[in-house]
Each structure stands twice: as structure tokens, then as C-alpha cells.
């Protein structure tokens, strides 16, 4: 039996899904054994994978969050392109079967899929319906715009939610990346990096960004908005009941279902109605599966068989309906829709409706920046400096862009070598 190592970053209910999928695959045949190993947060898992590759000990499959896509795509020898592996292994593989918002993110300009979509998400606004009732808000009419959201947060605060009216996980994902796409504002030149590594960040010039960051800074002062950190570590503030409005991944669903002791729902991300074209469409988050280079042919055959197993329609339907991650194939989405499932559980369709709200523009197709993991830390640092009152919102935006551009140029120089 050939062992296939799968390093991943999922915890709680989503970890259970990973373990179950591996067990089911292992029980379905005798030649290969998939061994899932939890390696910490998304950034930790990516770093562990890169370090292991350098030491000649990479796993076969590495789950990498969407933020690491630019870095992985440039790591030529370190990866085995998925389209190539599937072909060599003789596995049927049709890139057109996947939702375009997802396959496009992980494909080259020629349409070759480099990694395997797995747990794709988008960002949604989760809200506590019981808290809404307590604050005299209509739980069936969640706020649509940012001004409405801040008004609701003020009422929630007055009703006793005084530590946090509204918050979000993944600070840069919420307040830069999704914010740009949802408002049809470019983060940089070169189609947000998808049309070239020489992209130059420029979102500090956007009045909408300045308005949003200024609002967050103002509202942080009395905790109408309260910052919850750079990753998803702060998500527990929603399930505990502390923050009644919380923007984070649709893949938070399993956790909410298991842990929230109140009535809840979600809605689309808020927007500023005076920004032309808003809301545009959201972009994907979550992660894909990268196959590492330098493995034996029979090991790749096992990985290819496992990927075929994962793409199965019913398995995709299950993954989607249990985790809140997207159904990655068109067939799986159609099947869930036709079953009437979303009538009872509209919150699972929210991220798909956001992604497909309008045809993507150059500002809302996705992002592809090298070193984006490090750039996200810079962006978070600058937002934190503004929220702490150390910098004005404009100075923080300027520094986020300048320091981000330095990282991009550095990445470009190393990638060219
Ligand atoms: O919580 P996830 O897995 O949907 O990931 C959210 C963000 O995309 C991470 O970059």
C-alpha cells in the first residue's frame, strides 16, 4: 500500500470532514492510504510545506489558502501541476466542470489548472437573530449597506452587546481584498496581479477605502466596531454571543451550527451604496490542494485517484452542505439547488450569490500576488496602527500600499532569478 501524506489546516467541524473524506477513500480501495495531518493555521501549514520541500520531505498534498496561490504558482520545481498529473495518471479531468470563479483562480492564463480546488469559500455577514430581536431590529431584514450595519451595531451595543457591535475575522481579507472586489475597486494595476507580477498596489488612492477605514477607526473608539485579529482566531466571538454581527468565511458554518446557542443567519457583505457599481461580486477564499514535486509515479497515481474521488458530485454536495464551503463543481451546485435545499437553508447559498452577483471585472476576478502572506501581515499592521490611533487612516493606507509594493518588488526579483 502506498501512503499519501496530506497536510492541512482545518480544525473543528472542518477537520472532521477532512478525516472522513480520507477514511472513505481508504475504505473504497486497497492500493493507497491517504493520511491527513493537521499542521496548524493556513500560514503555518504553508511555511511547514515550504520548509519540508527544501529538506526533501514534502508531503504529497499541501492545502494552501488562496493567499498563497501566487507564491505556489511561482515555485516551479516545488509543485506538480494538477492538470499534468491527472493526464499522466490517466484520470478524467475537465476544468470546465468547476465553477469558473473557482477554477479561474487556480489556473494559468492558458486555462491550465495548477492546483485542485477543495474548500473554496467567500466572505459573508453572520448575524445573531436573537440579538437583533433584543435590540428591536428585524431579524428577517439584515442591514444591506455599511451605514445600515453601523446603525444596527449601535442599537445592538445599546441593547447590551457593549464589547462589540460588529466585527470581522481575517482583517485584510475583509477590509482590503473583499472590500475592493465588492466595490469594483482595483487594489493594484495588472488585474490585481493576475495579468503580471509587475503589479503596483494603488488602493490608497480610493476615496471608498479611506471612508471605510475612517469609519472603522471612529467606531472602534466605543467598540461599535471591534477588531478581531488577522486570522480566524477571533471567530469564537460570534458563536459565544459576544459579537452579534460578524463578517467571515462561509466555511464558518459547521462551527456556527455546532456551537452557537442562539438563532442565527447570514447575509451578503455590506457595501457603500454611493460607490458606483457596488455591490459588484465577491472573490473566493478558502484553500486548494497543491501537489508537491519530486514524487514517484505511483504516488501521483494515488493522488490523482483521490482527486477524482473528491470531485464526485455527491461527495461535493455533502462537503458543501456540511461545511458551508462552496460546491466546487457546477453539477454539485445544480443538484443542491434542484433539491430545494436552499429554501430552508438560504445561508448556504449566500456566498455563491455574492460570487456570481455580476460578471467579474478586472477589479473583481481575484488576486495573485507573490508574498501575499507577508503582505497581509503588513496590511494588518497598518490597519491596527490606524485603529490604535497611531496613524491617520490615510497614512495607514499609504504605508500599506508602499510597504506592500516593496514586498512585491522583492518577490519579483527573487522569482526572476
Ligand atoms: O476560512 P476560510 O477557509 O474560508 O479562509 C478564509 C480566507 O480566505 C483565508 O485567506
How would you characterize the overall build of this protein?
The structure is a single chain. With 417 residues, the chain is of the alpha/beta class. The chain is 46% helix and 13% strand. The protein is built from 19 helices and 10 strands. It has helices spanning 12-28, 42-54, 69-74, 82-88, 100-103, 129-134, 146-158, 171-182, 189-192, 207-220, 236-239, 253-259, 297-311, 313-323, 330-338, 341-344, 350-355, 372-387, 393-416, and strands at residues 2-8, 32-38, 61-65, 79-80, 116-121, 123-128, 166-168, 245-249, 264-267, 285-292. The strands form 2 sheets. Strands 1, 2, 3, 4, 5 and 10 form a 6-stranded mixed beta sheet that branches. Strands 7-8-6-9 form a 4-stranded mixed beta sheet. It binds SN-glycerol-3-phosphate.
Cα gyration radius (Å): 21 Å
The poorly predicted ranges are none
Question: What is the beta-strand fraction?
Answer: 5-15%
- Shape by Cα distribution: globular
Cofactors and ligands present? SN-glycerol-3-phosphate
How many strands appear in the DSSP assignment? 10
Task: Count up the helices.
Answer: 19
Give the termini distance in whole angstroms.
40 Å
Largest sheet: 6 strands, mixed
Q: Fraction of residues in helices?
A: 40-55%
Global structural class? alpha/beta
Question: What are the defining features of this structure?
Answer:
single chain, 417 residues, alpha/beta, four-stranded mixed beta sheet, 19 helices, globular, binds SN-glycerol-3-phosphate
List the helices and strands and how they pair.
Blueprint: E1 2-8, H1 12-28, E2 32-38, H2 42-54, E3 61-65, H3 69-74, E4 79-80, H4 82-88, H5 100-103, E5 116-121, E6 123-128, H6 129-134, H7 146-158, E7 166-168, H8 171-182, H9 189-192, H10 207-220, H11 236-239, E8 245-249, H12 253-259, E9 264-267, E10 285-292, H13 297-311, H14 313-323, H15 330-338, H16 341-344, H17 350-355, H18 372-387, H19 393-416
Parallel strand pairs: 1-2, 1-3, 7-8
Antiparallel strand pairs: 3-10, 4-10, 5-10, 6-8, 6-9
Bound molecules: SN-glycerol-3-phosphate.
